[in-house]
Amino acid sequence: MLLKVTLLLISRIKLHLYMLNIPDSKYERIVIVGGGFAGFTLAKKLQNKPIQLILIDKNNYHQFQPLFYQVAMAGLEPSSISFPLRKAFQNCDNIVIRVAELQEVKTEEKRILTDQGEIYYDKLVLAMGTKTNFYGNKEIEEKAFSLKTVAESLYLRNSILEDFEKALMEKNYELRQKYIDVVIVGGGATGVELAGALAEMKQYILPKEYKEIDSKEVDIHLVQAGDALLKGMSKEAGETALKYLQKLGVNVILNKRVNSYDGNNVVVNDGTTIPCTKVIWAAGVHCRKVLGLDEDSYVRGNRLAVNDKLQLLKHPSIYALGDQAFLSDEEYEHGHPQVAQVAIQQAKYLAKEWIKKKDKGFKYKDLGSMATIGRNKAVVDLPKMKFKGFFAWILWLFVHIQSLIGFKNKIFVLINWMWNYITYDQSLRLIIKPFKRSTSKPKT
Amino acid sequence: MLLKVTLLLISRIKLHLYMLNIPDSKYERIVIVGGGFAGFTLAKKLQNKPIQLILIDKNNYHQFQPLFYQVAMAGLEPSSISFPLRKAFQNCDNIVIRVAELQEVKTEEKRILTDQGEIYYDKLVLAMGTKTNFYGNKEIEEKAFSLKTVAESLYLRNSILEDFEKALMEKNYELRQKYIDVVIVGGGATGVELAGALAEMKQYILPKEYKEIDSKEVDIHLVQAGDALLKGMSKEAGETALKYLQKLGVNVILNKRVNSYDGNNVVVNDGTTIPCTKVIWAAGVHCRKVLGLDEDSYVRGNRLAVNDKLQLLKHPSIYALGDQAFLSDEEYEHGHPQVAQVAIQQAKYLAKEWIKKKDKGFKYKDLGSMATIGRNKAVVDLPKMKFKGFFAWILWLFVHIQSLIGFKNKIFVLINWMWNYITYDQSLRLIIKPFKRSTSKPKT
Asked: Which of chain A's ends, N or C, has fewer CB atoms near its CB within 10 Å?
């Protein structure tokens, strides 16, 4: 009992050291920026180790990005694919969480500035992921939808549903078509999965719930710059995805780029114009630049070049993980793919390296990749085999449920998926508009 | 097959009649305003009857108000207690849904104006429920929180969690207290249930997730104007609720009113000032007035006086249901309580009366009332007995799950409650801030 109280007191004092921001001489302090796959996994591996750990993220939760498109399509709730960081680390005395945004790194002083104040570090881990890349096109950035946060996914969901409601009230034929047609830009996993889900909504939901709209008039366009879909996967996977989507009625436009979108008309580079109120931009990502790092730290897509210990080349006490890291080795000359598996493996590697000090370099083990296009339809590339169809789809479901954080989330997603499968229905079509009012700031 | 196609064609034509807003000579057209307990139940009872039915609501979903407080306390997701109207009426060919807001009633022309256009009616049913009554205090209206929509409930949830995060970063003691203290105004079911849930969050969650905040310093005040809690229930229920809340550490202040709140300080009518950033106003409701109805249609709280057929006294083709209706009979001289049971019974009565034409007046059958204060703690008043404690709590859970719309919602709420009960934890503490950007309007 006395021991417990003493331990509690010590942990409280330690915590106050964090608050006052005085480095603790006894324990090394690691600051992780980003609670995504990389940052979250690393923190989990370091919990209750003799390390001071500060995890900062803009949000108070971990987000499971691969399923954002299902949130957008009203198939899953944000809470089923998000997990509160504080809850995840309830039982750790060595981890402090701060909802904060990184503003600058002071490499000389080993200090970062955030919107919530400054934090000293012994080691700094940058695991901030990527953001949508609009390739400098401000107009598209302003008018198009993207899917890089749960908030954006919910916003897209609301917009799709609101536009259906508007279409019902619209007597002008042209304008009605604008409300119901959708253009997706980018034929990677997000674009393909979204197109498939939209096509199924058109097929199964619209005829039942929007009887006054002729669902055959809903056009879904998928514009891909390259000559195949799913560029990160095998040729076969891309071809199968194309076949699946065409069967579902998606108009796949290959070898074309979207030049402009003003909120009303998409202009493709062959001069075609597609009128629509919703363009979903899934055509690329890049990393945020970090103030305080030299320009020559970055390679293509603003990724940070690291050595095989995942350290920045010029700053060995700063690490980059996941999408933000660029490690070129024999097998991956152009860096690893920006996927969850790389982030998770790098995080696990780093924790092991820090704890066991084996002095080995990171080596990525490709476990395969997969994408789903709709009911019973998926493509899977494993290192030694490729397959598609129902079993690929089952494997996709299994892998995604297994990767979710939190047992309850797994159950809820599983029930939702079973439910949707049996009823041919995603049942979360709620337009919950955020409550708005003037916010008040307290004064002292 | 041919029959099916013909029927489908006829239903399509009928639907187009709705769209073009030409009254159909063959079927009577009923317009229901509001998809709450009253409007939703009435529409359900009239589905697939030889009646043209138009259901309008501001939202595209039915909301289960009794559990808003659990959404606010991160115990349930909005989607678990909301149900999309279009989904609920997927299989009805006689019901058209419009997401629209009533603006005016033209009683002479039997026509309503909405923000989405005008609609003719043969019978009009007003079932618009209530909104928060701030008794004319604009400042409180602007600064306080209330719980009359799921959007407001989510907003409160986000604010509570954000304020805990702010408190962590706040070095000034006074200001920190402001962020963590909460004042609830109103000792009815909402106020009591919210206070109980907050007290449990303080007890079970804060010590685990906000270790740097001393949870004993979190003060929850419940200010009630009357001399007892739960005025709508028995004296015993109010006393038990008081005892339960005090045991949970809630500071219940009876016989006091809140005079003002400027976003920083609550001033009670005895002069006491409580500094806090969150005041939750649950001190009363009133109805919206409907443009086009005479002033003398309204009684206390803007309720519409109706006869025992639920018709407005001066307009027999307009009906009022639920919270919005005021029916005075021998037993309920001052009108029925504004609760779900009355709304549901009135809706059922009206549907029966319209279909079977029995020419009987509405009679309310009180089935009892209940409120929960926390784990294993509830009070139940049945017509013939009163009880409290664990069995009351079980009954409360059962009745609420049973009343939810949608089988999946029942399952999800049940799992959530079982989960929370076993783990002492509500696990939905996600601050999902709405995505914002400049919206674009399409042009023709």
From this structure: N
Nearest to A151 among B16, B152, B434 (CB): B434
Tell me which chain B residues have a C-beta less than 8 angstroms from the C-beta of A415.
408, 411-412, 415
What single letter denotes the amino acid at residue A101?
Answer: E
Nearest of B216, B130, B163, B215 to residue B431 by alpha carbon: B163
| 3-state secondary structure at position B88 | helix
Whether A215 and A206 have beta carbons less than 8 Å apart is answered as: yes
Task: Residue A164: list chain B partners with CB under 8 A.
Answer: none
Query: Can A193 be counted among the known catalytic residues?
Result: yes
Q: What is the pLDDT of residue A19?
A: 45
Do both A120 and A149 map to the same domain?
A: no
Reported as a single tens digit per residue, the pLDDT across A390-436 is 999 999 999 999 999 888 899 999 998 998 888 887 777 888 777 77
Chain A residues lying within 8 Å of B60, measured CB to CB: 161, 165, 429-431
Does residue A281 contact residue A190 with C-beta atoms inside 8 Å?
no
Identify the pLDDT of residue A298. 97
In a domain, B314, yes or no: yes
* Per-residue model confidence (pLDDT) at position B425: 78
Domain identity same for A125 and A187: no
Question: ipTM of this predicted complex?
Answer: 0.87
Interface test with A, best of B11, B430, B433, B437 (most A CBs within 10 A): B430
φ/ψ (deg, to 5) at B48:
60, 25
Query: Which is catalytic among the residues B118, B165, B174, B193?
Result: B193
Residues A181 and A196 reside in one and the same domain: yes
Give helix A189-200 / helix A235-247 axis angle, nearest 10°. Answer: 20
Cβ neighbours of residue A34 closer than 8 Å, sequence gap 6 or more: A56, A57, A126, A127, A128, A129, A322, A324
pLDDT digit string, tens, across residues B310-352: 999 999 999 999 999 999 999 999 999 999 999 999 999 999 9
Beta strand segments in A308-412, E: 318-320, 325-326, 369-374, 377-381, 386-388
Number of structural domains found in chain B:
2
The domain that holds A104 is classified in CATH as 3.50.50.60
Asked if residue A365 belongs to a domain, the reply is no
Q: Is the dihedral of CA A137, A143, A145, A151 positive or negative?
A: positive
Domain boundaries, position A104: 15-130+287-356
| Mean pLDDT for all residues in chain B | 91
Question: For A124-147, what is each residue's pLDDT tens digit?
Answer: 999 999 999 999 999 999 999 999
Please state, in angstroms and rounded to a whole number, the distance separating the CA atoms of residues A327 and A334. Answer: 8
User: Does residue B393 fall inside a structural domain?
Assistant: no
Q: Are B143 and B266 in contact (CB under 8 A)?
A: no
Flag whether B373 is in a domain.
no
Q: Which of B169, B206, B416 is the best substitution to test chain A (most A C-beta atoms within 10 A)?
A: B169
Angle (CA) A44 A50 A53, round 5°: 50
Q: pLDDT band at residue B19, thresholds of 50, 70 and 90?
A: very low
> Do A90 and A120 have their domain in common?
yes
Tell me what pLDDT residue B267 has: 97
Q: Given this model, what pLDDT does residue B430 score?
A: 81
pLDDT at A14: 47
